[in-house]
Structure formats: C-alpha cells, structure tokens
Amino acid sequence: MEENGGAGTTKWSISRPSAGTPLEVAGTMSIRAVLDRVFSSVDGSGPRPVLTLGSGDPTASPCFRPPPEAEDAIVEALRSGKHNGYSPTVGVLPARRAIAEYLSRDLSYQLSPDNIYLTAGCCQAIEVIISVLAQPGSNVLLPKPGFPLYESRTMFSNLEARHFNLIPDRGWEADLESLEALADENTVAMVIINPSNPCGSVYSYDHLAKIMETARKLGIIIIADEVDKLIENYINITNDPATFIQGAVPQIIANTKEDYFNKILNLLRNSADLCYNKIKETRGITCPHKPEGSMFVMVKLDLSWLDGIQDDLDFCCRLAKEDSVIVLPGSALGMKDWIRINFATDVPTLENALERIKSFCQRHAKLQA
Fold first, then answer.
1. Which of 28, 225, 236, 244 is 20 to 30 Å from 72 at the Cα level?
2. How many CB atoms lie within 10 A of CB 298?
3. What is the pLDDT of residues 124-144, one digit of tens each?
4. Domains along the chain with CATH numbers
5. Which spans of this chain does the record mark as coiled coil (predicted)?
6. pLDDT value, residue 278
7. What are the phi and psi torsion angles at 176 (to 5°)?
8. pTM for the complete prediction?
C-alpha cells in the first residue's frame, strides 16, 4: 500500500487481504457482511418501514428485553465499586460459583467453579476452544448449515473445516454416516449446535446418544454449543462483558423469576407457530421442520416457481428493495437457495413482514401452464 505525502511516496508493509484468503473470505461471507449487502438494496424513499427478520438480536424488540432484575443487578454491581478492576482470566469466583450451581441443578453430578470458564460472549468461547485445538494438519467437523464463526475461526487457526450435512426432512439431524466418512486420524473435534442455530431444531435423546457414540468410536471430542434456558441473554449483555457484568451474575441468577423465562418461551413458541403456518400458506417457499428451540427457522426457496430469481441472495436483495423486509440469505450459513428468518419480534411486525413476503412471492410467481 502506498501513500503520497509532501516528502514523496511512502510504501507501507501492510496490504488488503488477497482474494480467496481466509481473512478475505471470512470478511465477505460473515452474517454482518451479507446483511449489509441486503440492507443496501432497501429503497430509502419507500413509504413503508423496514422490517428486519435477518439479524440475531431479539433485544431489538421491546418484548424480548432482559428483565428488570438483570438491569438492577448490573447497576448495583457498577455502583458498588467492587468490580472496577481486572478480573482473573477464567472469570471472577462468585460468578463462576453461581453458574456452576445453576447448571448443576439438572445434572446428576455437581459442577465446581473450576469447571466454569467465562468468556466475552459465545464468540470468544468459540475462539478459545478452536485455538486450543489448533494443531498443524488437524481438521474439525462442522455442521452444514451452521454458525459461520466456527468456519472463520477454524481457517484463522490454520485448521481444515470439513462439513457434514444436517438432514432437513429428519428434523435437521446430523448425517452421522457422512460425518464418519469425513473423519480421519487428523480430526480433533466435531461441532454440535443444539438447539440448532440456524435451523431451530432440538435433538432427541436418542440422536444425541448416537452422536456421542460416534464421537467415542472416532476418538474425537464434541464441541457442544448449547443453550441452558436463557442464561446466555445475561452473559451477552455487552460484546465484551466487563468485570461489573460478571459481578452482577449471581444476583441475576438468584433474582430472575421463573415467570420471565415462561413469558419468553411462550412468546417464542407462539411466534414459531405463526411463522411456520404463514410459510405453509406461501407458494414458492417451504419450511421442512417447525422450529422447536430457537428464534430462527430455515426456509427453502422453490426457484422453479419464482420467476427471475437467481438465488437466495437475489431473493433477499429484491425483497429488501421491493418490500422493505430483511431476511438472511442461506449462503451465509452454507445453504444456497435457502433463507433464514428470525421470528423473535413482536407479533404485529412478524405478521406484517410475513404478509409482505407472501405478496412478494405471489408477484414473482411464474405463469403456470
């Protein structure tokens, strides 16, 4: 890279990432990069508000706001003056103890604080564990579709990413035969996301047992990306949780009422039903499996029915331009000609957005003989 200055030309030793390199690929195919491209298609002069079902942040909707107990605990921790310094690398002891006790409620054994390692959200947790596994020549088995950060972190760590399929017609179960075929002596781990992001499925105990048996047979570890109730909502209040956030964790866990969890689960359940039923009414898109355990649903595009739509990115950009609705192209998740819809929003917004999607599909339907 060169810069023209008053004293001549300065040549810097940094440059833009070359096409096809891990950094360049990760930058262009991240969820945020793809959504930015879709957002750029919105007609800013359009009369209707933009309805966003593409991002993964439910707190953008007031009905999914964290409970006041969480907010009060954070304010109290900050004002106490006890959590203004650096924390231990693994996290502060009271927070780790509270989380260990919370998670032990549903286990047949007791976790200790030493079993808990706090990170700056789930993204840093992925970075840490992939870094630990980063031995030269190793590979990691990743689900397709899945969460893109696993692949980008795998590439950054010079590991090979190998993708096993999830089967839509079987509740997005892992295709264990294809998984076994991908594994070799250099395979160090498999990633299992349950409940599934982005599919919304929840694996049965029988399928989880088969996954564990497969891992045992192959001699590889399972990176279990799981959600225990809604505790992640509190740990991820900021992108980089400060010490005072950790200081608030014990009170958040102790004081948040069960009614809050029940309310959120009922909202998600009702929105999932609404979304699934509306998709069934819409020609040109199909949903093979109703979501059971997350705020996302994967929807397949029928390009043989949709006139002039080239692929999932084209569908999403045109939908944004014509109807001001944002959904995520499945290509960002490894699933070309699919889209991901986030239904964690208020019901009127969801109904409006789904009605616009239906209208869009009707306008672009091919004339049938």
1. 225
2. 25
3. 888 889 998 888 899 999 999
4. 20-62+259-363 (3.90.1150.10), 67-256 (3.40.640.10)
5. none
6. 97
7. -70, -25
8. 0.86
